[in-house]
Amino acid sequence: MINRIPIILLLVLFLFPSFAQSQPDRVFEQFLDRAGPKVLEIVQLEITPDPVREGQPVGFRATISNLTRFPGKASLFVKDRDEVVTEVHDVVLQPGENRITFPQTRYRFSRNEHCFNVEVDIARSRKPIDVTKEFCAKRTYFGWTLGEVRIGPFFVEDLSMFPDPAKSGQEIRFKARLRNDGFPLKGNIRIQDRDQMVAQLNDVFLPRGYSEVQFANVGYRFQRHDHCFTVVVDFEKTPYPMDAVHEFCAKPLGWSLKP
After folding, report:
1. Domain 154-250 sits in CATH 2.50.20
2. Which part of the chain is CATH 2.60.40.10?
3. Model confidence over 218-245: pLDDT tens digits?
């Protein structure tokens, strides 16, 4: 009988901490079973580096809020659509906000936009976590970013043509001086005369600030009494009109854009 006491004490010392640790995990699992993944919330999702270039290793960091009063172990998966990008296992989610760092991945960014969500796996039950906002990485000239991409505003500082004045039936070249007050980007730029497209250039880099764009030998012909031009930049199939410092209209009797 006396020899059994040390064995019992050893069992208590080894098993009780494990039992005590498992109790909060079970309570946390029960909360998740009843309330679903709404007891967890993604407050923020970040990538490092940001922006990230194609082929560059990228890491993810998530801030996840545990809305229960209990800690619990979980596995977390960052997903792009149905594809797992990176994952981490046996993370303890304490009550309140938890900052989770995922392993680096060589996930290939390729589309203009990648939207991510996070799934949680508790007791072999994987469920999406509620998000406070959509986490979408947009493609920019410098790479993909989860930060805010400010598109425009765009301005046409000047529009000139060569030759000027132009004769009826003569081929024309245009040069536009543009200003981009937003994020640097690539876009398609076109000149329009009413609804008629006069000239277009694709994949033009528009840095922040001023740039000049030349439209060579566009084959446009002056025919009407008046021709007024507008410039439009098309970014990801969305047209953005450019504000002009003044109206660019070619006057007849030798059409001219000069003042």
Report:
1. no
2. 31-145
3. 777 777 677 788 888 887 667 776 777 6
Q: 97, 64 in Cβ contact below 8 A?
A: yes
pLDDT tens-digit series, residues 69-102: 888 888 999 999 889 999 999 899 899 999 999 9
Which residue reads 């001023």 in tokens? Answer: 210
Task: Give dist(CA 130, CA 92) in Å, integer.
Answer: 18
- The DSSP symbol for 51 reads S
The fold adopted by the segment(s) 31-145 is Immunoglobulin-like (2.60.40)
Spatial CA neighbour of 60 closest among 51, 52, 48: 48
CA distance 213 to 36: 55
d(CA 85, CA 52): 15
- Comparing C-alpha atoms, which of 81, 91, 71 is closest to residue 20? 71
